[in-house]
Structures are given as structure tokens and as C-alpha cells.
Specification:
three-stranded antiparallel beta sheet; 9 helices; 48% helix; mainly alpha; 6% strand; binds fe (ii) ion
Amino acid sequence: MSSMKPPSQEHQVRTASEQEEPAVRAVTSAWSQTRRRVLEHLAAVGVLLAPGCHEARTSASADTPTTSAAAPTTAAAPTTSASPAVSASPVPSASATVRGKVGESCQTDTDCESNLHCTLGFDGAKFSKTGTCTKEAPIYEGRPLRVDGEARVATLGGSPKAGISGWTAYFARAAAEEHASVAAFARTLCQLMALGAPLDLLARTQRALADEIEHTRGCLAWYQRSGGQQDALGVLPEAVADIPGANHGLDALAQALLADVIHGGCVGETLAAEAMLERAAQAPEAELAEWLERVADDEARHAALAFETVAWLVAQRPALKPVVLTELAGLPAAIRKRIEPLARECGLLEAQPTA
Ligand SMILES: [Fe+2]
Ligand SMILES: [Fe+2]
């Protein structure tokens, strides 16, 4: 290890949840923390519209207890998968009929044996209907730059990385994906301006863009610190690709932005925040765990920004509300269980009685 400073000293955003006693943290799952953080950020910008938000926020710390979240280990490398990065375990069901073994087909965790996860395909925006049971939790990455239906990233160091694994491989991939998120937010910023978004929303989007630059910088620093070379990210011509919907009027632009923000932001950033917390629990050193926790809070704020953006779009164009319902309904059930309650808190879905 070098004497390098912590990669992300610039991050100053600390939420109340990060001040918790260790004993509290130990019994709070990554998902519960993520949910609470997203709701805290939504509350901070006044986007929580549903009357039940307080109950949801206070109950968030009580569900799905786990004993592993606050216990960093030195053995575990971050989880990896063929899908774009960032993990989120589909919600397990207590009444699950467990049956699938590793490699067998599944649609949710409940189709797999109790110690396995159902890993769906994810192309940066859409999940596959079926996946396979895996030992590792699936990894789904947040806020991709999608062009012509594919997530695009620059190459690190001029050529694809080979012969690296564990944290080094994770940071190589994460650096490229965080870097591409900068372009995704830049595109969003232009779309929002075209649609007449208020300055506060533009400012929060601009801040998210700046966060992604810092995340990229941090990933590169940790990449080198974990054994990677002093590489830089290369060209990303897709950063100036045509903006979706731009040539078909403002309604088409708004709908394209809505779909991108729901999948890349509401879903992707929320799952990214959760995955970062899970990785923090696996980090082999406290400094890395602290950095990952700070990034997780940034991603939770980006998720909140996505819900805020969707709420603003729907307020401006009520005709888009059915599109929101359709997009959410199209998510895999396990992902929907995470995202719909947050959407409900923002008034994007009708309140429903809780079971
Ligand atoms: Fe990020
Ligand atoms: Fe993000």
C-alpha cells in the first residue's frame, strides 16, 4: 500500500445515519440504510409528498436485520458479475419455496436455494425476465450512459484489462462506469434545460455530475492502490451522441428523459447505493469502507434526485404518469419491491395499505 491520501477527502456529505452507534449499524441491513438515506435526501428537498412518509422512514431501520453489515472482513473481494457493476440482492421471501441450484433458471431469489441469489441479465436499463441462480449477489450498476440501447464506457489505460481480479478489477470497471455517468448527467442537464427545469433541479443535477467525477477520481486512486497501474480513461465519443428524443419535440424529449431517469437513476442509483454499503462491509480496510460509505450516500442522493426529477416531469406533464406506472411495472418483481415504495413516498404511485 502506498502513502496515498484517502481518495475522496472532498466528500463532506454525512447524514445522520452515519453518526449512528456501531451497535445500531450492525443490525441494519444495507437495504434499510439505503432506503433511509434516499428518503432523507428526498425529505431534504421537500419531495416526500405521501402522508405516510414519516412512518416509512422510522420503520426503515427496523426491517431485514443483518449481522454482517458492520463487520469488514479481509477475505472478501467485491462481488462481480458479467452484468454492469453494483449489486443488489433481490428481496428474499421468508415463505420461499427454495429449489434452484447454481446455474439453474430463476426469476426471483425465491426460485433459488436459500443461500443463492437470482441474477438477472441487465443491460444498463432493462432487466431480463429470467436469470440464473448464483452464489454471488448480482451486480447492477447505476446511471449508465446509454447510446443506441447499450451502456457505453471509455477504456481504462487504452486496452481492456486482463489478469486482474478482486478489488483491482472492481475499481477498474467502476472507474469506467463512474466516468460514463458524468456524461449521463451532462446529457440530463441539457434535457432538463430544454424542458424548462427550475434552477434548483439543475443545480442538484450539476452537483451529481461533479460527484461522479470525484467517484471516478476515487476509483482510479483505489485501483492503483490495490495494484493497478497508473492508467487514465480514454476517449468516449458516445458522450456527444444525439440526445434521445431531441429531434422529436419536447414531449418526446420528456418521455425519453423519464425512462432514462427511472432506470438509470431511480433504479440504478438506488441499487448502487445499496451495493456500495454491501461492499463497505466487505472492505479489507477501514479507510476503504469509509470511502465506500461516502460514495453510497452520494448515490442515495442521486437516487433521490432521480425521483425528484421524475416527480417534476410528471407535474409538468401529467400525461407521463401512466408511463411511470408502465416503466415500474416492467421491472423484475424483486427490484420493484425496492423501488415502488420509494416512488409511492414521492407521490408517483397511489398509496396502498401495507401488509
Ligand atoms: Fe457514482
Ligand atoms: Fe451516481
